[in-house]
Amino acid sequence: MLSFFSAVAQAVEFLGDLDLLINNAGMFESAPLEALSPEQWDDAYAVNARGPFLVAQAALQHLRASGHGRIINIGSLGGMKPWITHGHYCASKAALHMLSQTMAKAWAPEVSVNCVAPGMIRLPDEPERLAGKTPMGRDGSPEDVVAAVMFFAAAPEFITGQVMAVDGGLSLI
Predict the structure, then answer these.
(1) Residues recognised as catalytic
(2) How big is the CA angle at 166 (ends 120 and 152), to the nearest 5 degrees?
(3) Per-residue pLDDT reduced to its tens digit, 49-58
(4) Which stretch of DSSP H or E encloses residue 87?
(5) Per residue of the chain (173 residues), what is the pLDDT tens digit?
(6) In which domain, by residue range, is 133 found?
(7) Residue 89 belongs to a domain with what CATH number?
(8) Is residue 11 part of a domain?
(9) With b meaning 16 or more CB within 10 Å and e meaning fewer, what string describes 108-130?
(10) Residues 6+ apart with CB under 8 A from 79
(11) How far apart are CA 107 and CA 59, in angstroms?
(12) What's the angle, vertex CA 13, arms to CA 11 and CA 15, rounded to 5?
């Protein structure tokens, strides 16, 4: 099995450098809180919080060496709002949000760390789900999330430790 350090080393060998890491792995499932198994809980944390931590830790020396490293973690509106049938998901994404802020504080000034927290994102062939509940009157698109990631990728290095909701204002309700 390829370790996170080996995977990062291979990426650096292929690219020649590493100045940006986007942690985009995620695990989402529905289950009533009272019916969650320890395995479901652990799986959510393994993918949504532990994985991003280990990959970032493996990439840190390369990001620091670049002189302007950036980490962008993909969180979720679920890390800001409790969803009763997604307790393990919400808790693990909230952990990722806090981890992002902790890394931002610990690894500054060489590395800036931010987090994009999408809300309801609809693929083009899917029906609208929460459009009527968002102040913007629509579900988000993958392009909305990409734009937020690109913002953090190109933003001033002074912007760090931020969790940006990309949710059309749904978190305001």
Answers:
(1) 89, 93
(2) 140
(3) 999 999 999 9
(4) helix 87-107
(5) 568 899 999 999 999 999 999 999 899 999 999 999 999 999 999 999 999 999 999 999 999 999 999 999 999 999 999 999 999 999 999 999 999 999 999 999 999 999 999 998 998 888 888 788 899 999 999 999 999 999 999 999 999 999 999 999 999 98
(6) 18-172
(7) 3.40.50.720
(8) no
(9) eeebbbbbbbbbbbbeeeeeeeb
(10) 90, 92, 93, 94, 95, 96, 97, 117, 163
(11) 12
(12) 65
DSSP for residue 80: T
What are 160's two structure tokens? 């760090």
5 found inside a domain = no
Supply 72's token pair: 């962008």
pLDDT digits over 17-27, tens only? 999 999 998 99
Compute how many other C-beta atoms are within 10 angstroms of the C-beta atom of residue 32: 10
Q: Is residue 29 assigned to a domain?
A: yes
Q: Which residue has the tokens 């990439």?
A: 59
Q: What is the pLDDT of residue 2?
A: 65
- φ, ψ at 169 (rounded to 5°): 90, 5
Tally of domains within the chain: 1
Q: What angle do CA 121, 125, 127 make, to 5 degrees?
A: 65
Question: Is 10 contained in some domain?
Answer: no
